């Protein structure tokens, strides 16, 4: 069953108009689909994109699975992503990660809390190395994050 | 102290500078108008005289790339901006896009004119939602004022700029992989010259395409404003490293941040600018230009910091992406190197065997060393694996992955030995790093 409204389809058409080929609109279209489907890409979502861009579904799947930010399964309401690369690592990222793991009772390998509120994940360099450790939650960056600030943030998001 | 003129960051802290009105009140879009009144080749000539080299990491002379683009408009040409910034330790393009989005947009317009492009795609990494919104808003404002769109300022030329969001793959920053990704494919690299034509001849959609870093095109503003010759006078080091460059300085320094620094400034002064190594500590090592460069020894420090690199080892210790990471004596080098190995292992696209298999082996060996089960022979084994990747990987990811490993072995072999001989008890408790 299609979840794309006429408005969503118009968004896809606008994206298509930006490029010389329909296929080029694939990545931005998958972003739209992920939004429409509640933060992940079930097979139906990829199917809908494939139809709209006139591509074989297998091609769309092949591309979607290459990129880590297209979620292949549902995630919690809020994804807490903590950078564990070296600039953050030497300024306490590991402690922050373990603090969150204890607090939320999940492993930072992308696990989601039982109530479905939080997904916790380690991520690679977020490009905020000068304000380490860096955390991203749904597109918003938090920098120079301490355990106390993390607690306050989790409390606010709950 | 050497003087540090601020050319890119002149207005970085002006309130509201991200809006077009404030930007224009500070001379914004005047350089574009100036460039638009020039012939495209005259703009390229200024770039040639300025000595500008690519700020994305490889440092290739920008004018050579631009001059390789056909001089006619028989087919559409593309300017593709590389805003995929993913190199660990590199945070300059994000800062620029968040703070000075019109610097980038105006730089794109000038560059498009020079290479006779009517379309520009700014490929922004998927994590950069804030910079993406910032740049998209600036583009919208530029359309409203008539700097983008059809027949811009009555020139008869069209300039369209689009943003394009990536979706999490470090490899997509590699020029040919980036073009594949832009075209809606998996982000795999393609054949390079001489086996394939230059992208400037046949790039995205087989049309002439130039891929440039965010900072490279932004530098067009001071070049047009000052003129290439005046711009080329700036610089304290080699005649091949001119102008200023952004550096993101992170790790164990007093004042981490993004700094605009004149190329060739003595490295010791660069350290002073960011407050030096944090108080009470001493410098152990540093990565000069993002993790695809190696670890540098703590001496000498008074060499010119520029593209020509650190005298001891210019190949592995260059400016790279401008990500300077400083480590003090508390840093355990083995788990830090392991972290980088795991990063490259995770990001390898798997297309070629040396990189895919070699990094898989390195990942396993570092895993056992850090778990307390390493053997002394592992050190030579690591070196041999690096040797089997060196010069044999399909793209520069493989090459970049081995420099931190090889340099860490060269500089800190004793630490590896102590780690291995000490057994489990000597292992670093990761949660103590950074305390
Ligand atoms: N900014 C970042 O986040 C990252 C930057 N890097 C940097 O990328 C660097 C490697 O980049 P590559 O693109 O693989 O280097 P490259 O040397 O192959 O190419 C650099 C540029 O010069 C052009 N070029 C090369 N030969 C040319 C010729 N004969 N005529 C005209 N143009 C020519 C290429 O098309 C490309 O645009 C590394 O040194 C690393 O520092 C790596 C990872 C991330
Ligand atoms: C694995 C890999 C990742 C790269 N990532 C980036 C990047 O994020 N940004 C960038 O400007 N260049 C990156 N590069 C370098 C580009 O391939 C290319 O050299 C650069 O965009 C050219 O622009 P410039 O001449 O303006 O520096 C990367 C290279 C490799 C091998
Ligand atoms: S070097 Fe690594 S990233 Fe580059 S093509 Fe080979 S496997 Fe892919
Ligand atoms: S290393 Fe953590 S943001 Fe760059």
TrEMBL record, chain B:
Pfam families documented for this protein: Complex1_51K, NADH_4Fe-4S, SLBB
Keyword match Iron-sulfur: yes
Tree of life domain: Bacteria
The NADH-ubiquinone oxidoreductase 51kDa subunit iron-sulphur binding domain, residue ranges: 334-379
Molecular functions (GO terms): 4 iron, 4 sulfur cluster binding; FMN binding; metal ion binding; NADH dehydrogenase (ubiquinone) activity
SMART domains the record matches: NADH_4Fe-4S
Keywords per UniProt: 4Fe-4S, Iron, Iron-sulfur, Metal-binding
NCBIfam families assigned: PRK13596.1 (NF010120)
UniProt xrefs under PANTHER family: NADH-QUINONE OXIDOREDUCTASE SUBUNIT F (PTHR43578:SF3)
Family classification: Belongs to the complex I 51 kDa subunit family.
Protein name: NADH-quinone oxidoreductase subunit F
Species of origin: Armatimonas rosea
